[in-house]
Model the fold of this input.
Amino acid sequence: MKKTQIIDRSQDERFMREALALAAEGATQGEVPVGAVLVQDGVVIGRGFNCPITRHDPSAHAEMVAIRAAAAAQQNYRLPGSTLYVTLEPCSMCAGLIVHSRIARVVYGTQEPKAGVVISRGQFFSQDFLNHRVLVEGGVLAQECGDLLKTFFKARRENAASSAS
Done:
């Protein structure tokens, strides 16, 4: 019998704020500010922020870091019944990992118009060939998530301009 996940939308903002704090931490290290937390039964089991630059690892997206941490903590490569909160719409690499991990639900903040595959550049999770279905909720604290990214990239452009002069 398949376990039904009960969605408690009142928790979405709380966990998204945790993801935002992680994103801000990544920004202090010069990483693109994206944060993620993975929650199971109301408990955070994995956390992460983007760190491909500092780890010299192109796969070290926030989702990847959080899922790896959760899988290690749970000693299981499958994370059924869990919800992933991420500040930015997942890319194709992360979407594939979400399916393979059997994550039940993804809650994201702002859209990623260049590489997001939940809604922006495609609808990956609704593809017929997938053997696992993921529930998706977008736009949770979208303004805050988007503002963090805009502020980061604006500062990066200003620093580049001042360095060039």
Remarks:
- The CA atoms of residues 52 and 60 lie 5 Å apart.
- The first helix runs from residue 10 to 28.
